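To close the chapter, one final illustration. This time we ask the reader to focus less on the individual chains and more on the assembly as a whole: which components sit near each other, and how the overall shape emerges from the parts.
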Amino acid sequence: MTLAASLFTVASEEGNNPLLPHTYELVVGGLAFFVVVIVVGKILVPRIQKTLAERTAAIEGGIERAEKAQAEAQSTLESYKEELAKARHDAARLTAEAREQAAQIKAELREEAQAEARRLIEAAHAQIEADRQQAFVQLRSEIGRLSVDLAGRIVGESLEDQARQSRIIDRFLDELDDQSRERVGS
Amino acid sequence: MSTFAIVANDEFKAPGVEIFQLPPLWEGAPFWLTKPVVLAVVSALGICLLAWSAFAKPKLVPRGLQNVGEMGYTFVRDQVGRPFLGKDTDKWMGLLLSLFFLVWIWNLLAVVPGINFPVNSHIAFPAVLAIIIYLLKIYLGIRHQGFVGYFKGMMFPPGVPKFMYVLLAPIEFLQNMIFAPFTHAVRLFANMFAGHIILAFFSLVGFHFLITHLTPAGFTLGVLGVVMTILMTAFEMFIQFLQAFLFSLLAAMYIGQGLHAEH
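The assembled structure is written out below.
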């Protein structure tokens, strides 16, 4: 197409130097550029510049907010960790205290029980001793009377003499004592 | 000069300058209503439309076209603006973004099927953009550094032995005042011009040897032409982007030179 058209041009026009500008093309080119500069350069570029600036601000704001949130989360985590550590420490301390107290209570109870047992045993011993003494005294007078009666009957005479009577009883009792001790000892 | 691409006989003629000489769109149309003029205007309107749908109501969380637009914006800001303008980048982004996309789309039309014409291969288009940047550079330089300060900073850069200024001052003046805007425009124009000729040449090789003059001997050549057309199209797309990038990069550099004295 261009070739066919150019044939006619060359034939009709002479001396068309490609280095010499056509005036009408200078005018048209200048106007075209002017229109683009007005519409794109003066009207549209400021709009996109404003949007780009706003976007930068928005992104910066977003980053700032995110940083703040992160810092807050970090501090919250720190405080939680601190509290947790404190709680663990407290728990450990309480456990130790409880263990100590339990040991103490156990020891006290044991001591008390031992004392009680000792007391009971001692009381039992005393009771036994008292009973024994009482029995012994009773037995002594009883045996004395019985022996005197018996002896009186055997001998046929009453032993008037008090002193002699008690001496005989004592001797008899001593013999009994010896006998019983020997029995216990064997 | 007036070479015919396809001649009456079977001979192959490479395309030349004539492929850039386009008549008015139809018989009787105004002389200025040509293909590059229409493409230039339609591209400008298309960029406005695309940018409008991307940036008219920008969202904090971008969707669809806004994503693409933002990619373009951040690319121009970070790769074109900031290296030369630093903190002043945002103030000049409107100009730089418009410049980059307009130049890129004008270049890109060279490989759009059915259009196949880079607007910037007509030198008037790069020239008018370069002139605008050139005037802006001088205006900013005089406004921010003063008339004397601007030319003194340009022609007598500090840190050079005194006698060197005899040589340096005229060179710097010519470089900044004459060559810079010229190379600025011609670099873009020449790349697009050459690229278009290369693409036209290889596609014509394919067309000539495979369709209009198919011969067993010419078949391989025709296939080579098609393969090269595809490869060069990819390469041209890279060059188109690179030149648009470079053009806006230089614009940013010139604006930066106007704002601050060179050290």
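Confidence is low (pLDDT under 50) at residues 3-15 of chain A. Chain A touches chain B through 46 residues (CB under 8 Å). With these observations in hand, you are ready for the problems at the end of the chapter.
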